[in-house]
Structures are given as structure tokens and as C-alpha cells.
Amino acid sequence: MVFSFAACAGKSVNNEGESQTEETTTIRIGAMAGPTAMGMVKLRKDSENGNTKNTYAFEDFATDASAFVTPLATGEIDIAAVPSNLAANIYNKTEGKVQVVAVNTLGVLNLVERGNTVNSISDLKGKTIYATGMGAVPEYTIRYILSGNGLDADKDVDIVWCSDTTEALSKLKSEDGAIAVLPQPFVTAASAQISGLRVVMDLNEAWEKINNNSKIVTGVIVVRKEFAEKYPEQLKKFIDEYNESVAYTSSNIDETAQLIAEYGIVASEAIANKALPKCHIVCYINNNMRSALEGFLQVLYDQNPKSVGGSMPKDDFYYEY
After folding, report:
1. Is 286 exposed, middle or buried, given 0-12, 13-18 or 19+ CB atoms closer than 10 A?
2. Of 111, 57, 110, 108, whose CA–CA distance to 84 is shortest?
3. Class of domain 114-210
4. Domain 9-107+215-317 adopts which CATH fold?
């Protein structure tokens, strides 16, 4: 389902003071359900209420990020909130037809234990770790952090890859002392169901101890390059309005949690309320965006070039606002 409105035009003034008609259009937006979409809920609600400078058409939040690959490539949507490495993959697949305009979500992985034997990454030596995301960002992140702490992911620990968070939850429920690396807001939901489950650490902390030149970047906002070139003023307004939406998210937890539940991103408003501060919703643009994202993609590339589409994105991948 798409909430859409008619295209429109506005007035601008050129350098000679002459009034010009500035072409505008409805901006079609997609986002993956989960933390990647959380910073967008206030903007979506404002759009539905007619309280935005731009006119937006929001697609229903998707559970599969790959759902945006073809629509971005073919021009069916203009802007999307997607996983960071998927953005690089789309860039390479389309030969540079998308650009990143913002980092919108930092790391959401937590190390959890149903017990009290692990208090640092080094304590994981000889342990079994349950995790999801084999062959994707979670795996590369876990391997990098283990390596940075002197542990070989294939020799020093036993990583058991679960097919999904439901399988991981069953492992945590059935095994005393179970250890896992899992994402928010799932960790918050699991903690409500499993007595004694504790968060050992936020993996952002572990990352920053071994790499202070980048951050774990879970999600980004991408735009079709053609759209960015044709509607630069509308794109700037979107970035401003998205930034305001993120600021609202950070300072109005209760109201945002209600919207997150309303849009089905998290089933429970109570879980959304507890998890939101732990999901690291941000809006990094320009140099802050590039420094955080480029270093993270380099870590992924060094482990497996296919993780970012075969090659590191070039300078034009990063949109300068």
C-alpha cells in the first residue's frame, strides 16, 4: 500500500531576482521494518497529516530489505532506508545510480547471556555463541570484534548460526548459560520472556575499543542519483525533515514508541519504548556520514568483497549536502 499525493510546483528566485517555477514531485519512500525505519515514523505521520514541506508517498514498511533493490534500480521509489551493505551492493549493481544521503542507524547487536560467566569479549574463548545473520553484516561484525580481541571465530569459539530470531529464542529458553549475539529490539523482547537473560554489552562499545575511525553502521538512507540531480531542493528539504524526525525520536520516546507500534515495526508499544534508546537512531550527513560508513564498509570488504557488491564504492556514493 502506498500513501500518495499529487505532484506540485513551487516558486523560486534566481540570481537575477527573477521568479522561476521550481519543478517538484511526490517523493516515494520505502524503508525496512526494524530500527532502520524507526527514525522515519514521525516524518511519515507528519506527511499523512499534511504537515511536511515536501509531499511524500510512503510504502508499507518491508520485512525484506531486498524488496527495494529493483524499485530503486527501476525508479519506482526515490528514497529508501536500507542496510548499509545493501546500499553498497545496489550502488555496484546499478553502476552508481544510488547515493547515500545519511547514516540513520548505528549498531544494534548485543551480546547476551543467560548466566553470569561472560563479562568481556575475551571471556568468549571456548564458548558456544548463538547468532543470526550468517553471511551478512552480523557475521562480519562478530568476526571482526572477535579478531580484534585476539580470538579466531573458527577456532576459539563455536558460532552456531540460527535461521532466525525465533530459533535463537528457543536456544536461549532451553539452555542454562546460553550465550548469543542478537539485535535490538529483539533482545528487549527476549528479555521480557526469559528470566535471567542479561545484556553483557552493546557491541558498539566493543567495536570502538578496536576501531575509533569508524562505527558499526546498520542502516542508511539512499536516494536515486537521478532524483538527487533533478530535485536537489526537495532532497535538501527531505534531509532537513528527516533530521527533525530523528531529533523527535530521541526526545519523545513515549510518543515515538506509540508510532512504532502503530506502523507495525515492533508489535508491542511497551517493547518499543524500552528498546528505542538502545537502537542508536541517528542522522549523520556529509563528513560524519562518510567517516562512519566508509570505514565500516572497508571492514566488510576486507573480509568478503561480495559483502559490498565486489568493490568499495567510489566518491560519488556519498551525497554531499
Report:
1. middle
2. 108
3. alpha beta
4. D-Maltodextrin-Binding Protein; domain 2 (3.40.190)
Report the alpha-carbon distance of residue 35 to residue 85 in Å, rounded.
Answer: 15
DSSP sequence for 145-198:
HHHHTT--TTTTSEEEE-SSHHHHHHHHHH-TT-EEEEETTHHHHHHHHSTT-E
Looking at residue 22, its pLDDT comes to 62
State the pTM of this model: 0.90
Q: 9-107+215-317 with 114-210: one CATH topology? A: yes
Domain limits of the chain?
Answer: 9-107+215-317, 114-210
Residue type at position 49: N
| CA atoms of 303 and 58, how far apart (whole Å) | 35
Q: What is the DSSP string of 48-82?
A: HTT-SSS-EEEBPPBS-GGGGHHHHHHTS-SEEEE
Contacts of 31 (CB under 8 A, 6+ apart): 37, 40, 58, 59, 61, 62, 80, 81, 82
What is the model's pLDDT at position 24? 87
CA distances from 237 to 13, 132, 169, 241 (A): 17, 37, 42, 6
pLDDT tens, 78-101? 999 999 999 999 999 999 999 999
Residues of the chain with pLDDT under 50: 1-15, 18-20
Using DSSP, state whether 212 is helix, strand or coil.
coil
β partners of residue 181:
111, 131
Q: Which of 70, 94, 56 is nearest to 317 (CA)?
A: 94
